[in-house]
Amino acid sequence: MSNSEVHPPRRVAVIGGGPAGLFAAERLRAAGLDVDLYEAKGSPGRKFLIAGKGGLNLTHSDPRPLFDGRYREQAANVGLWLDGFDAQALRDWA
Questions:
Q1: Cα–Cα distances in Å, from 3 out to 6, 7, 11, 20, 31?
Q2: Is residue 48 over pLDDT 80?
Q3: Do 46 and 1 lie in a common domain?
């Protein structure tokens, strides 16, 4: 088979249905590939389903000055980012 006859795979397996696996699967589907997603837990995206009980906390309630200040020397930069997309905007998006 010559190089001109090589065809890229049309089906891809993604192992892990966490945020990175879901993102990869979404990008692969957007590129026109068929995707099989494999997840060991009870459901893909489980981290999103238990938001607030783990590392994905969408309900943080500290006032902005206190929250920004937790980033010490980067507080001003974090504050600028959050001015454009704050916690409420994140919850609305989710």
A1: 5, 9, 20, 32, 21
A2: no
A3: yes
Q: Which two tokens stand for residue 45?
A: 């995206």
Whether 17 contacts 39, CB under 8 Å: yes
CA 8 to CA 24: how far, in whole Å? 17
The residue with tokens 């699967």 is 25
Spell out the residues 6+ positions from residue 73 whose beta carbon is closer than 8 angstroms to its own. Answer: none
Do 50 and 15 share a domain, yes or no?
Answer: yes
Please state the pTM of the whole predicted model: 0.48
Distance CA 52, CA 48 (A): 9
pLDDT over 90 at 67, yes or no: no
Are residues 28 and 66 part of one domain? no
Domain that holds residue 23: 1-57
